[in-house]
Design brief:
Structural class: alpha/beta
Number of helices: 11
CATH architecture of the largest domain: Alpha-Beta Complex
Amino acid sequence: MIASQTMTAAVLHEHGERDVIKLEQIPVPVPGRGEVRIAVKASALNWLDVGVRRGPKFGAIDLPLIGGSDIAGVIESVGDEVHDWHVGDEVIVYPLITCGVCEFCRRGEPTTCPEHRIIGEHIDGGMAEYVVVPADNLIKKPGALSFVEAASLPVVAMTAWHMLIAVGQLRPGEIVLIPGAGGGVASIGIQIARHGGARVFATTSTPEKITKARELGASEVFNYRDADWVMQVLDATDGRGVDMVQDNVGAATWPLDLRVLARNGRLVACGSHSGTHFELDIAQIYHRQLRILGSNGGTYQDLVNAIQLAADGHIAPVIDTVLPLESIHDGHAILEDGTHFGKVVIEM
C-alpha cells in the first residue's frame, strides 16, 4: 500500500510554453470498477505532449490534466471486478480507450472510434507517481525489457506497426521511405519495416543521425537539408521511386513524399506537427495512381505485436534521454529543439 495519500505530478492548468507545466502535490487517484492503480516507473514524452501543452488542434481538452501516454509500472491496487491482474504485476499501458460498441469498434477498427480517448490527452496520464487506468488496457511487461525501455514503446510502436502493417499493407521486397529518422515513430518504423522484409530509406539532418539510422537498418539515408535529396532518392531507385512513405511530419514533407512515390505508391500519414496545409497538385495523384492513407494510433494487438518483437530482440527501443520528473521541462525542450534521436523518457 502507498505510504502517503498525495503524490507528485506534472500538471497542466493552461496551455502555453513549457513553464505552464507545474509540479504539484495532489491526491493519489483511487481505482474504480474495472480499474487498477499503477505505481509509475517510467513514462515517455511524445509530440502529443507538446501539442497538448501548446493548445489542442482538434478540439477542447479538459484541464487540469496530467500528460503522459506512454506508461510502464507496477500494479499497486486493483478495483472491483478486476480478476486477471494482481498487485505486483509489471505492466505496460495501451493508451487508447474506446467505446467498444460503435460500428467501428465492433468490426475491429477501434482507432476510428468517434468516442475514443487517449490516456494523457483526454484523461490523466503517467507523468505522476501513480496513475489509474482500465484493466483492459494492460499488457504484461516482458522481463527482457526494463521499465524505461517498456515506457518508450507504446505510442510510437503501435503507431508505426499500424501505419506499416495494418494500413500500409507492407510487402517483403518493397522500398519504404521514412522521413525524420530521429523521431520516435520513425526510429521504430525503420526497424519494423526492415523486419518485414522491406528495403528501408530514411531522411534526417546530421551525419550523426545518418549513422544511427543506418545502424537501425536503413540501407539508404538522405540528408533532407540537401536541396536535391529527392533526386538522390529517385537515383537510388533508378528513377522508379519508393512503394510507400511512412510520414508523421506533415505539411513540410508531404509535397516531397508524393514526388518520390512510385506509380501505385502509397503515402501513409499519421501526424502533422510541421503544419496541416500545403499546395497540392491533384493531377499527380490520378496520373500515377497514388494512394493517400490516414492512420490514427494503433490497436491493442498492434502494440502487443510490437512489444513481442522488442522482447524477442528483433527491434530495439530507441532512447535518447532519460530524465527525472522534475526535469520534465527539459524533456519538452529536447523534443521541440529537434536534437534528439529516439525517445525522451521520464523515470520516476
